[in-house]
Amino acid sequence: MTQTRRIAIIGGGFSGAMLAARLAEKGVASTLIDRGRAFGLGVAYSTPFDGHLLNVRSNRMSAVEGRPNDFVDWLTANHPDRADPEGFAPRRLYGLYVKDRLAGVEEAYPGLIERVTGEATSVDETGVSLSDGRKVEAQAVVLATGNPAPKTALPGEGGGWVIGDPWATGALDRVGAEDDVIVVGTGLTMVDMVLWLEARGWRGRAKALSRRGLLPRGHEAQPDAAVPPTDDLLHAAPSARLHEARRLAGDAGWRGVMEGLRPITARLWQEADAPTRARLVRHLRPWWDVHRHRIADSIAAAIAALQAAGRLTVTAGRVRTIKETEDGVALTFRPRTGPEAPPLTARWLIDCTGPGHDPAKDALTGPLIASGRARLDALRLGLDLDPQGRVLSADGVADSKLFVLGPPARAAFWETIAVPDIRKRIEDVAGALTETT
Ligand SMILES: Cc1cc2nc3c(=O)[nH]c(=O)nc-3n(C[C@H](O)[C@H](O)[C@H](O)COP(=O)(O)OP(=O)(O)OC[C@H]3O[C@@H](n4cnc5c(N)ncnc54)[C@H](O)[C@@H]3O)c2cc1C
User: Fold this and answer.
1) pLDDT by residue (tens digit) across 134-150?
2) Residue pair 157/363 in contact by the 8 Å Cβ criterion
3) 0.85 exceeded by the pTM?
4) Nearest residue (CA) to ligand 1, atom 34
5) Which of 9, 10, 14, 292 to mutate to test the pocket of ligand 1 (most atoms within 8 A of CB)?
6) Domains (range + CATH), the chain
7) pLDDT for 315-340, tens place per residue?
């Protein structure tokens, strides 16, 4: 086993940590850089709350491509009460699993993974610079930086009654048991926050608002058999494909149709021409997201119960203004349909709009784009990449020394958010990085 390269991986969440482990198993050394100390967890698996469940069944959450039972085996050994292969385990346990795998590989391949805690501020041909002046020398760099924390134009962030980053430690501590909250965003983060409040004894009301007012759909208790995609679903014109999807869903259920599309989504995205991609992003994306990224059946039931009790209302509309008063927040909005509506008022406003990210302005990727080493994809979803995850320069040349992994690689793969998709990408990136050693 010869060690000829060192790879710098920026981001020690699931993607970066599991790539480092895979590289070590292949005999390649890496430096794993994260601004926090909890390597392997990232935002998704840092939660201490056991009511935050995975939204993917345990038997699909193996961190290792080719070892499908890895997570269920780990649960069986460590938390047998949560080891149902078709159940939805707490995300906290998943974090422990990822940490264990990282530590296990470090022990088995000593010296091949170096952990560095620090803020990566720039990337060049020789490696990565950190904010405190340190430099990590590397032959290749992987950006596994995940989704950035929510960053919207909501006023009042950082003080008063607006909770700008709900994932920040202690963010919900100030919300009193009887306080009403406005939640901007009705997706997975809203679900997490409302249920977390509930578990802490909160008895107020949540008034959730998003442009379309769509809630994530729930899984069934039992897994859905994948409906094999038909020729029309795969090859017809976009509107005919949608029609075919609806027809299949009418016959066999929409969850089965989504399951059938799951393994080939990245390929379909890569085969789609630019206008088709643009239409999908503009018109279909919110619908796709709520059907594709489903919540555990028990979580869906808890949300439905809050709605039925009148403690969670969901409104479709666009934020106009947010004003903090002495004792709370008032939000005016333009309803998606129907007449003008009175402002939403509450003690607190929680920003659950998710990441608002512009790679051209990002401290790490902005200079890469400005210098022509990288470019944005046509839809500005992220950096433009080749099918192996290598960054494309302004001239469209793939850079074998610069890769993107995980959610920021969405421009190339569309679905690269969940573990089953990311672990495939890890295999590809690890393969590409070792090819030349
Ligand atoms: C709340 C939530 C729940 C989820 N639940 C599931 C689920 O149940 N199942 C599933 O499959 N997927 C789930 N996901 C999807 C999730 O994105 C992936 O599973 C996975 O965690 C992504 O990991 P990542 O390492 O790519 O990103 P992240 O976990 O975001 O990690 C990126 C890391 O990079 C670090 N970083 C970023 N920039 C810098 C910098 N400049 N310098 C140093 N460090 C930096 C960050 O601190 C962070 O630790 C969930 C996501 C969220 C947000």
Assistant:
1) 999 999 999 999 987 66
2) no
3) yes
4) 11
5) 14
6) 6-148+357-435 (3.50.50.60), 162-217+295-351 (3.50.50.60), 231-292 (no CATH)
7) 999 999 999 888 899 999 999 999 99
